[in-house]
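User: Predict the complex with pyridoxal-5'-phosphate.
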Amino acid sequence: MIPFLDLNKQYLIIKKEIDKAIQTVIDKGEFIGGEFVSLFEEQFASYQQVDFCIGVGNGTDALEIAIEALNLPHGSEIIVPANTFIASAEAVTRAGHRIVFCDCDADNFTISIQSIREKITQKTRAILVVHLYGHACDMDAIHALSEENNLKIIEDCAQAHGAEYKQQRVGGLGHIGTFSFYPGKNLGAYGDAGAIVTNDKHLAKRCRMIANHGRLDKYEHRFEGRNSRLDSLQAAILSVKLTYLDDWIQTRIGIADCYFEKLSNIPEIILPRCEPWATHVYHLFVIRLNDRTALFNFLKEQQIGVSIHYPIALPKLEAFHYLKQFDENFQAHHMDETLLSLPIGEHMNNNQVEIVVSAIKEYLAEAHN
Ligand SMILES: *Cc1c(COP(=O)(O)O)cnc(C)c1O
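Assistant: Here is the predicted structure with pyridoxal-5'-phosphate placed in the model:
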């Protein structure tokens, strides 16, 4: 049995440190705000090579608050890729703006530069890029479009802790970046948690105020905000886990290399493309094939954890029917039937990769007969 994710196995390796961190927070009785949260914010800012980090409740809040902090005119158009988790798009509407979906590159899975170009109008004010599966978007091209058209760049880094574009960590490459520490992410809390990062002092201050009822000091509310907090227990857990992140990413890269090597000569399978600019952190290892659902079911029967990210491109979701943005020409609208996420993570070893590969080969051999 090879699970898709094994958080318990991970916990057992770092149990002593985690238990101690949790006990320390409880002993101090400092559950909200304070030193544990500030310490993790500093550590994570340094890890992502940015000046500011603001801990918030989760990755979806991070996106909503980041977009709100940009202070764009109400009803601005924000370009969002069609293949991502719903949160990337939802946040645009929640912040009072209009989603404009654009297509994705079928090989590296990130936002298509050509498609962004086609979607820019007089009302476009921002591009929300998603470093999907742990692979950085083509940031030089996105910067060029941003400068030409005066657009803000929001980076959704929920799947890309530690990922790099030309040797620079994601998050500080645009105007503002957001992270999720949902338990299953490469850096995950033991519950909900998220963060916003930026190199812009004013944006950082605004985000902190929005997330804290529009205030900096106790009762000095400057505007109506909301409550979205990274709590001390999660912060202390994340501080421990951050010290392991680079090792865990290396394990993921090793497993990905193994998949690349062993699946490269199978004509039915299209492997993900890692662009020369990207240091991929392989939050997900996503292959494409025509008979996806049959292979998915076969692997499940063999107790191999597989998943699909994402089975329905966003414009086709019921939630977004009102936008009437289904575009037959999007590759994303055909790609979604072919995507398959293979198990990857620090819980796996190369022997288990072999088992996954053998099972895939067995399935394909049977399918041919
Ligand atoms: C997980 C995820 C989010 C949302 O994060 P939560 O912490 O679950 O709110 C946003 N965007 C992407 C791309 C994600 O994968």
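Residues 58-60, 84-85, 87-88, 130, 156, 158-159, 180, 182, 192, 194 surround pyridoxal-5'-phosphate (CB under 6 Å).
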